[in-house]
Amino acid sequence: MNYLLGAFKPACNISITFTDGKNRKQVPIKKDNGQTVMNPLFQSQETIAGKVCIEPYQGKKVEHNGVKVELLGQIEMYFDRGNFYDFTSLVRELDVPGEIYEKKAYPFEFSSVEMPYETYNGVNVRLRYVLKVTVTRGYAGSIVEYQDFVVRNYTPQPPMNNSIKMEVGIEDCLHIEFEYNKSKYHLKDVILGKIYFLLVRIKIKNMDLEIRRRESTGAGANTHVETETLAKFELMDGAPVRGESIPVRLFLTPYDLTPTHKNINNKFSVKYYLNLVLVDEEDRRYFKQQEITLYRLKEETS
Amino acid sequence: MRRLAGVEDEEKWLAEGIAGIQHNAFFMHRALDANNLREVLKYSALMLSELRTSKLSPQKYYDLYMRAFDQLRQLEIFFNDESRHGLPVVDLYELVQHAGNILPRMYLLCTVGSVYIKSKQAPSKDVLKDLVEMCRGVQHPIRGLFLRSYLAQVSRDKLPEIGSDYEGDANTVMDAVEFVLQNFTEMNKLWVRIQHQGPGTVREKQEKERNELRDLVGKNLHVLGQIEGVDLDMYKETVLPRVLEQVVNCKDELAQYYLMECIIQVFPDEYHLQTLETLLAACTQLMVEIFSQPTVDTKIVLTQLMDRLSNYAASSPDVLHEFLQVEAFAKLSNAIGKVIDTQIEMPIVGAMTLFVSLLTFTLRVHPDRLDYVDQVLGACVVKLSSVPKLEDARAMKQVVALLSAPLEKYNDIVTALTLSNYPRVMDHLDDGTNKVMAMLIIQSIMKNDSCISTADKVEVLFELIKGLIKDLDGTDTEELDEEDFQEEQNSVARLIHMLDNEEPEEMLKIICVVRKHLMTGGPRRLPFTVPPLIFSALRLVRQLESLGGDITGEEVPTNPRKIFQILNQTIEVLSSVPCPELALRLYLQCAEAASDCDLEPVAYEFFTQAFILYEEEIADSKAQVTAIHLIVGTLQRINVFGVENRDTLTHKATGYSARLLKKPDQCRAVYACSHLFWVDDLDGNKDGERVLLCLRRALRIANAAQQMANATRGSSGPVTLFVEILNKYIYFFEKGNPHITPSDVQSLIELINTEMQSDNGNTTIHSDPFFTSTLRYIRFQKQKGGLMGDKYDLIKL
Known about the structure:
The complex is a heterodimer.
Chain A: H1 2-8, E1 12-18, E2 26-30, E3 36-42, E4 48-56, E5 62-64, E6 67-77, E7 84-95, E8 98-100, E9 104-110, E10 120-121, E11 125-135, E12 143-151, E13 164-170, E14 174-180, E15 184-186, E16 190-200, E17 204-217, E18 224-237, E19 245-251, E20 261-264, E21 268-280, E22 285-295
Parallel strand pairs in A: 3-12, 15-22
Antiparallel strand pairs in A: 1-4, 2-3, 4-9, 5-8, 6-7, 6-11, 10-11, 11-12, 13-14, 14-16, 16-19, 17-18, 17-21, 20-21, 21-22
Chain B: H1 7-33, H2 37-49, H3 58-80, H4 82-85, H5 89-95, H6 102-119, H7 124-134, H8 141-155, H9 173-193, H10 203-226, H11 232-249, H12 253-266, H13 269-274, H14 276-289, H15 298-315, H16 320-325, H17 328-342, H18 348-365, H19 370-385, H20 393-410, H21 413-417, H22 422-426, H23 431-448, H24 455-464, H25 466-469, H26 482-498, H27 504-518, H28 526-546, H29 560-574, H30 580-596, H31 600-616, H32 621-637, H33 643-658, H34 663-673, H35 688-713, H36 720-735, H37 742-760, H38 769-784, H39 786-793
Main location (chain A): cytoplasm
Membrane topology (chain A): Peripheral membrane protein
GO biological process, one term (chain A): intracellular protein transport
């Protein structure tokens, strides 16, 4: 049986390493099969350089029609699985057709790559960056190896960042005024605010603040919207009386958030909302949703 | 719904809650042992989630809370040790806030917060402020109260009070006060809110539950009272106004009442004294505001305040000047006046309670200001006059307390007698209470042995106790309990002996006053009250006598003759009762006293009265016997009478004696009369012949009695009468009555012997012990020899 197995095995082992792979920050990425793997982190305009190593298995040689490495930025819709839309595609030819008898390393470099979008793993859509090495072969089919990497782009502090302040209510039943200190939060930010009860005629059981993510994919009639609640944070327990003000302090760190994405390549958008929910004793829910913008702030220390 | 669930269900839920806590605590401890912060936080949050229940009553919830509390102590130790969890405390402070549920989050935050303060990595005031602010998220009354009480507890030793490690730099005692005040305010709001929840039907239960929770709220005030560095100024400027603001604004009677009580209890007395005005203003404000709900007991608050201040004043005399300085009395008096004026609805008992407290206060603080005391009583009179006749028993009790207070304080009724409003207050009591009060007054006098020594005071006193002295209008005498009545009258009798003055003149006045009052007492009282009066007067007579008799002359009103006139009239009144036996005794007493004063006609007059009574009023034969013996006894001792008067009286007496109904009584009375003729003094009247006559007559009667007994019963009975007469013979024989000869004695002894033999007929000698001992006496005297022995030798046995 051994020889049979050997027949289906790839003829060589391909590995892709980054130049500064040892020092580069690694971030976890969830794969399709649910496992989390660590991938190196890049940002736009960085030079992506490294080495591709091709090592034929013992006593084998690899005949090929050329070796190339591609840097791809892909968007994958889950309703259209397996079909990738490449919004970025760069190629470097590494070798002319020939034969490889022993381990051979090819350095490569994509300098100052424009990577406008962040890596994103959503419910219905995925945006990923990948290095793809192809050893083109005629009869036996090409040998392909992928190496994912993550792109995160940092945004400076927005110059304008107004607070969100609003009075809402149901006539003669409930009037509240809420205030969140900003409308734009970075991912390690903390939401501060206050809920002020102007009128309370219902028996409130508790009040939660939710962070909701709205992911819309496709366009026009095919638009697909998926909403997830990422955080459910109890702000208040029990029934307040008129005049009571309840503090809000929600740390964003523990939640798996991404920056707000607006119309990424006409394929999808990701928006975030703060949803203030009041639940009464009959479990009726009263809520008010406010969009917030999330952005990624360059971390000072790292 | 908790409200509808039974006790059993509650027990079940509590058990479940406890099990939940224990379960998660177990895992938490494992994580603690492994120093695994993440797991620790996870399981501690789960454990604390058990406190989110709404199903338990406060008491059961407290049980649950305490179990969680114990676990949190372990957690705090862990948080305290950075080497174990590896995070700076500031990060920890953020980390615990990631918890999704607010209640566990807040408990953890408070726990870490206390560690944070302890680490001094942040100013304690900032942390405290943050904690007390964040706790607002828990609006459920019971859960919120317990959470905040947890906060109060963990922060208690970390307040930046003076002398603590956390004070200094930017952290002042003011921050500590601010923190506690805020926590207090929020807790009070939560506490008050309980009453607004749930339907009215469970109101009572809610009230009960709230009562169980009140100490959680009050604890804050306690802490405030204990914070080092809260000086009078701060208390005056910040603490008290803020607390009072909360009290007044919460518009909840239970809370208002309890909190005022707390304020009064926890803060030092001198602060109260210095802020008296503010405090009283708040009290009156409360009174006015809750005008429609007279159930609230602001008066109790006032009462407590005054009691507290009274005790403070009593504790050390050094502070008294402070009271004067702030004019405490005037302020209190004003406040009470205001309260009573504005709250017309207030039951009279409430007003009285206030007055009692004010009076107690006055007596303690201004013992020398009788005018204050009188002022309080005056206010009380005004209030009492404005309402119809007092009927509330509790109010009555308060009035009694009010009136008793000065008695107890001064230990001297005399002081109380100078209070002009005192009797006016008493007028408002109903008859029964009036009597009780009168008894109290008398008891006070007795207890303190105080002597009332002027007629004016006696007048006032009797005015006070008039409930005992005479029947008040509308009293149904039938209803009175006989024993109580006697007790009361005995007290009055005792009281009369306490009225005393060395000055005969004043004493006479006193007696006249007393007499005037007692004469109104009616037939039921006179038998009790007249005798002490008589004896009191007789004492005066004897006093005058010892001063040398009638030295001041006839023109002076205080002379025995005059007194005897009064006495005569007084005893005469008894005839209306009627109570002849008593009157007779009193006449005899007077007669004897008159005799001692050498007032023959007076003594004679008294005897005459006594004899008239005997003849006209004393019909009962037993009473007659007693009366005769009394008359004889008295007459025998009196030596003032001239021969003629004496003869008349003795003749009468012997005459009465012989006319007694029963023979033995006759016999005894007659031989008693023999003493009338033989006064064993040096210059006494000694009429031996008439003595012998009396004795012979007695013998005759004894014989007749013997025979009568023989005839009616067939046996003559004992020879007692003879033996008694024999003894009289022997007495006079010894005294040297020449008419009593040894042979008389001898023949009498033989007579007795014969009698005894005939009596016992067939039987052998049955000796009479009296007789035997009499004979033994004779033998003894014979043997003794000497003068007496010689005399006795003549008697042959």
